[in-house]
TrEMBL record:
One of its GO terms (molecular function) is calcium ion binding. Residues 282-660 form the Protein-arginine deiminase C-terminal domain. InterPro entries: Cupredoxin, PAD, PAD_C, PAD_central_sf, PAD_N, PAD_N_sf, Prot_Arg_deaminase_cen_dom. CDD domains: PAD_N. Catalyzes the deimination of arginine residues of proteins. The gene is PADI3. It comes from the Eukaryota. It comes from Equus asinus (Donkey). It is found in: Cytoplasm. Belongs to the protein arginine deiminase family. Its cofactor is Ca(2+). Its EC number is 3.5.3.15. This is Protein-arginine deiminase.
Length: 663
């Protein structure tokens, strides 16, 4: 139990004090004692616990008629078990004696009023508020950790609301309460005590812009929930009603962890004695919360919804692509959602516009879409069409400069769960493309990188993607789920693997088989021509070095070995020193469970089959994966994107609870 405060005892008149249940009060028995007193004894009424604190090396515990010495090394503390029924109904009596005992030389009497004050939240992370017994004012990670969780109220539960729920100062929907964390104030004690004492709820100034607190009293109408703390509201006097033992509150999160915010906030309640000037806080109870981080979901999580845009512009319609996506979604039992062209304004790159994730507390979880700062044709779609009841929205804007290509979310990915040495990443690690190892160059905006880093649970890894014309990580890597112990494979685009395959086919006598066979308005290139193309060979050597640099980073940062990586044959060519896919980029696939939607490469056809497709099937299908090759050549590839760029997938959240990890 925590030491509360000291109460000075008098041998001339009774002393009165308030004692909070479960909190020790030190009783000063030395300050005012009768003349000649050298020892003392203590007695107490039922409901009071008395503890004599002493140094066993200096003091011997008295036996029989012996008393405690009035020694500086001997002290007295008291505590009460329950709240009092009436004022001053508990009593502690200290009797003072001379050197030789005999009758008491005097007495000090302490009258106590017990009051039960406790501020409680879901410290145990069970989804329910329970009376806290441990440390409530700190927050600890891990399976043995403790501390409550706040959700950022970034959805829109009320159809009448124009923005996010967190922008509303007053409650607009009772459903909104489910997005908040409950908090209970216990305040049991004699009603008369609160005529001279008050309960004050406080939030630190630095935390006041991070949360709101609503007081719940009365019925089930919106007017029964009053905002009492938050921005510009640092304290609130809780008006306890006669006989009231508990007051309920709901706490709303307003901001995600970020560069200027570690994610921790606190609230406290104080019992204040109003009978003194200045008013004196007698007791304070504090609780801590951590804002739930935004969590991305990797390809290994089961798909729930597949998003794709319907477009019709000078490049033609993508109707056939939509049909292929519909078929793939049916195979994977994944709902297809088509964004019509009137809403996407012929911006087909829905992967670049947004990234799906989720936030979770023990009592509630909901998906949250992260809107990228690219702000092209799809810029309003996440806010206008995805934000809604139990579907949140976040974004980060670049204030001074415009977005670069690396700020699109095709340049944002996340690995499956990995272990690196002894360090576990049970929610995987975020992957973003950057200009490393070059000096200068393009890099994802700091405001986005800071946000991702601040979430803590998916420690970001920066990769080198600035060698690509578009510059996105999804152009050279992907992850696919497997049913073995590892649970996944990393796919990397590989010019070396492609050239090796073509060399094998040439040696088998198929050198005249042509790339782009079957495509109209596209110059065909035979295997012999491609292998003899010195520029293509030189470009491939350079690009392979760029990918190999990333390969070593991924092995080191994700704890991978070579057997965890599959090389997917792929050629690139350089244009103005930046790489573009020579044929549809097969790693830029959409992963729907075991079903893969892979860009159709239109490779050399041998015995009626595309040798590139056959090679990829031989690599992936033994792992239990099903390959569907989708023609995206004119509608995506020719516009410098592929299947993954033109789709987006909302996935099932992790079963693992983020608060059980140790960042």
């Amino acid at each position: 139990m925590a030491l509360q405060r000291a109460v000075q005892l008098s041998s001339k008149k009774p002393t009165y004090a308030v004692c909070v249940v479960g909190v020790e009060t030190h009783v000063d028995v030395h300050r005012d004692v009768p003349k000649g007193a050298e020892t003392f004894g203590v007695s107490e009424s039922s409901g009071v616990r008395v503890f004599v604190v002493y140094d066993p090396e200096q003091v011997t515990v008295p036996t029989g008629q012996a008393r405690w010495p009035l020694d500086a090394s001997v002290g007295v503390t008291v505590s009460v078990d329950t709240a009092s029924k009436d004022l001053n109904d508990l009593k502690v009596k200290v009797s003072y004696f001379g050197q030789h005992g005999g009758d008491a030389l005097g007495h000090g009497v302490l009258y106590l009023t017990g009051v039960d004050i406790s501020l409680d939240v879901d410290t145990g992370r069970t989804g329910k508020v329970k009376r806290g017994q441990g440390d409530k004012k700190t927050w600890r990670w891990g399976p043995e950790g403790y501390g409550a969780v706040l959700l950022v109220n970034c959805d829109r539960d009320s159809l009448r609301s124009q923005g996010l729920d967190l922008a509303d100062r007053q409650l607009t929907s009772l459903d909104d309460l489910q997005d908040m964390s409950p908090m209970v104030l216990s305040c049991d004690g004699p009603d008369k005590l609160f005529n001279s004492h008050k309960l004050v709820l406080n939030v630190p100034f630095s935390d006041s812009k991070r949360l709101r607190v609503f007081c719940a009293r009365g019925g089930n109408s919106l007017s029964d929930y009053k905002q009492v703390l938050g921005p510009q509201r640092l304290s609130y006097e809780v008006r306890r009603q006669p006989g009231e033992r508990k007051v309920s509150f709901y706490v709303e999160g307003l901001t995600f962890p970020d560069a200027d915010f570690l994610g921790l906030v606190s609230l406290s309640v104080s019992l204040v004695d109003t009978g003194t000037l200045p008013e004196v806080p007698l007791f304070t109870d504090t609780v801590a919360f951590r804002m739930a981080p935004w969590i991305m979901t990797p390809n290994t999580q089961p798909p729930l919804e597949l998003y794709v845009c319907s477009v019709r512009d000078s490049h033609g319609s993508n109707e056939k692509f939509l049909e292929d996506m519909s078929d793939l979604g049916l195979k994977a039992n994944c709902r297809l959602i088509i964004c019509p062209w009137i809403e996407n304004r012929n911006d087909r790159w829905i992967q670049d516009e947004m990234e799906f994730g989720y936030i979770e507390a023990p009592h509630k979880s909901f998906p949250v879409v992260f809107d990228s700062p690219r702000n092209r044709g799809l810029k309003d779609f996440p806010y206008k069409r995805i934000l809604g009841p139990d579907f949140g929205y976040i974004t980060r804007e670049i204030l001074l400069a415009g977005a670069s290509g690396l700020d699109s979310f095709g340049n944002l990915d996340v690995s499956p769960p990995v272990t690196v040495g002894s360090k576990e990443y049970p929610l995987g690690r975020v992957l973003i493309g950057s200009s490393f190892p070059k000096s200068g160059g393009r890099r994802m905006a700091k405001v986005v990188r800071d946000f991702l880093q601040a979430q803590q649970v998916q420690a970001p890894v920066e990769l080198y993607s600035d060698w690509l014309s578009v510059g996105h990580v999804d152009e050279f890597l992907s992850f696919v789920p497997t049913s073995d112990q590892k649970g996944f494979r990393l796919l990397l685009a590989s010019p070396s693997a492609c050239l090796k395959l073509f060399q094998e086919k040439k040696e088998q006598g198929y050198g005249e088989a042509a790339q782009f066979d079957g495509l109209e308005h596209q110059v065909k290139r035979s295997i012999n021509e491609m292998l003899a193309d010195r520029r293509l060979q030189k470009d491939s050597l350079h690009i392979q070095k760029c990918i190999d640099w990333n390969r070593e980073v991924l092995k080191r940062e994700l704890g991978l070995t070579e057997r965890d990586i599959i090389d997917i044959p792929q050629l690139f060519s350089l244009k103005d020193s930046y790489a573009e896919a020579f044929f549809p980029d097969m790693v830029n696939m959409v992963v729907l469970g075991q079903h893969l939607g892979i860009p159709k490469p239109f490779g050399p056809v041998i015995h009626g089959r595309c040798c590139l497709e056959e090679k990829v099937r031989s690599l992936l299908e033994p792992l239990g994966l099903h390959c569907t090759f989708i023609d995206d050549f004119s509608s995506y590839h020719m516009l410098h994107g592929e299947v993954h760029c033109g789709t987006n997938v909302r996935r099932q959240p992790f079963a693992f609870k983020w608060w059980n990890m140790v960042p």
